[in-house]
Amino acid sequence: MAAEKSGRDGGVQSLQRAFELLEHLADTGGEASLSELAALSGLPMPTIHRLIRTLVDLGYVRQNTNRRYALGARLIRLGENASMQFGAWARPLLVELVEEVGETANLAVLERDEVVYVAQVPSKHSMRMFTEVGRRLLPHGTGVGKAMLAQLPPDEVAGLLGRTGMPAYTEHTFTDPAALASELVRISEQGYALDEAEQELGVRCIAVAVPGMPVPAAVSVSGPSGRLTADAVATIAPVVQKIADRLSHQLPVT
What we know:
- By secondary structure, the protein is an alpha+beta fold.
- The protein is 51% helix and 18% strand.
- It has 8 helices and 9 strands.
- Strand 2 and strand 3 form a beta hairpin.
- The radius of gyration is 21 Å and the shape is elongated.
């Protein structure tokens, strides 16, 4: 029985270490050498090599032509399914948000340097905003993306922008890192982000980061700029903040 228990413990430890290696790969931007993983994890090289080879065989890690290791394609399906379930759980609160403010509500997460919309409840207005669930955008050009970036350390933001660049969606999109950095400080101080026609002309968005999530997440309200006026923003922003706080307490994150 003692030998069996030891085997189970060893298996659990190996599983934990394998997931930690995947997290380390994600933290490095998705690619690292064995020596870099050893330095990050503190594990001996033989253990790193054994775990990485298993993950490669399963498709969760791939080896590039430069002999460095990267996150594998098999993780995409897991991540997308998890994101969709995350959105489904949040939907009742998004419905409540739409009923209270009358505009379209969205939930997005930050995944592989991109904003992914995982849920949406449209408003009842004939003129309303639609964002396809599953759509991916770069975070610097969206309200939800800026709300999430404002919660990250500046060095992580700089690394992300270095990988993605800052292309313009409209003439209002932030394309200068220094200007965006100032914007993120302002967002952090006021507690919400605004998308002022930065992703789509004629559209304004109010977004709030959802605290305490295992991945960066944000909830938003979007609509035509003519309806989402400055006065409307002042009224709606506290409601979005309230829903974000309730999401952080109600969503299953364990």
